[in-house]
Design a protein that fits this description.
317 residues; mainly alpha; 2 domains; 17 helices; globular
Length: 317
């Protein structure tokens, strides 16, 4: 008698399994990696370098105006957990927690198929779509793309697999399933609240250099993700010294050494990531357009500042 083939995991099972890889490696990673067809598991050092020093898997870092963990963005996510009747975990905006919640809602939506349960199932589907649209999709695809650029192979494979699953979820979510937008089928869907209330990148000529640099490191304001690896690469390209420490201090040190060159390098990176956001517009919609426009505006401002700084240097010589 032939062995029966193993059943393929459902999207919810895939998402739940992939969520684990955004957490520190444990013995569970090996079992899940085998089930998902991943060739290896990340080491503790690979996890630390990626998620503790380069790319932070928290919605608040990417959607909050401070560009840091916590703040109003985290409170907004925690409020979503509470609205669903769940006690928010200690880190409600962590990618693993959000993906776990999404998988739970997806499984519940495929539960009782009776006519009596249809209203409840529809409410769950609306909540699942709102979670994806409001709190996950605005930032996760940019994060996963950068993982593919910066991380070792095991994480790059993980990012590609998760991107594919979530992209399919976004593509199949109907606008009228997004309960808190109030949009019906065929109507334009409003931007997620995180984006609607996000302040723009401040102009250093009006607000000062400190606020400007802080804004550059907040993706929802600048439109692009600037990692420690990016700062190090810019230092190398511009042939300036790199100060060890937090991105903000390192970036301020670079700008103090050769403002025109560093500003132009930053502009090039912002423009590159603006184009990546634009590529997602076909299936991610206005969320992708928001980040593309912000990154494009950042690139233009940086170029303008570079020209001004170069003129100042020329006048001083």
């Amino acid at each position: 008698m032939f062995d029966r083939p193993e059943p393929r995991p459902t999207p919810a099972e895939l998402i739940r399994g992939l969520a684990v890889f955004a957490e520190p490696p444990t013995d569970e990673h090996s079992r899940i990696a085998e089930a998902l067809g991943l060739e290896s598991v990340p080491s503790s050092s690979e996890y630390s370098d990626l998620f503790l020093f380069q790319l932070y898997p928290y919605a608040s870092v990417h959607l909050g105006p401070e560009g840091m963990m916590g703040g109003e963005a985290r409170e907004r996510v925690a409020g979503f957990w509470k609205a669903l009747g769940y006690q928010p975990p200690a880190e409600p905006d962590h990618l693993a927690a959000l993906l776990g919640l999404y998988a739970t809602l997806a499984e519940a939506a495929d539960g009782d198929r009776s006519e009596e349960a249809e209203a409840q199932r529809r409410l769950i589907r609306e909540s699942r779509a709102a979670l994806l649209y409001e709190h996950v999709s605005p930032w996760v695809f940019a994060l996963l793309h950068r993982v593919g650029e910066l991380a070792p192979r095991v994480y790059a494979e993980w990012a590609k697999l998760l991107e594919g699953v979530l992209k399919e979820e976004v593509s199949t979510a109907r606008p009228n399933d997004r309960a808190d937008t109030g949009a019906g089928a065929g109507q334009a869907v409003a931007l997620p609240l995180h984006l609607r209330v996000a302040p723009e990148l401040p102009d250093p000529r009006e607000r000062g250099a400190a606020d400007f640099v802080a804004g550059l490191l907040a993706p929802v304001r600048s439109g692009f993700l600037l990692t420690r690896a990016d700062v190090a690469r810019i230092a190398s390209v511009c042939d300036v010294g790199l100060r060890a420490g937090e991105r903000r201090y390192a970036l301020e040190h670079l700008l103090a050494q050769d403002p025109p060159a560093v500003l132009r390098a930053l502009a090039a990176e912002a423009l590159r990531q603006s184009a990546l956001h634009e590529e997602r517009r076909e299936w991610l919609g206005e969320t992708a357009s928001f980040f593309a426009k912000r990154a494009g505006h950042t690139a233009s401002l940086l170029e303008e500042l570079a020209v001004e700084e170069a003129a100042k240097e020329e006048m001083a010589t």
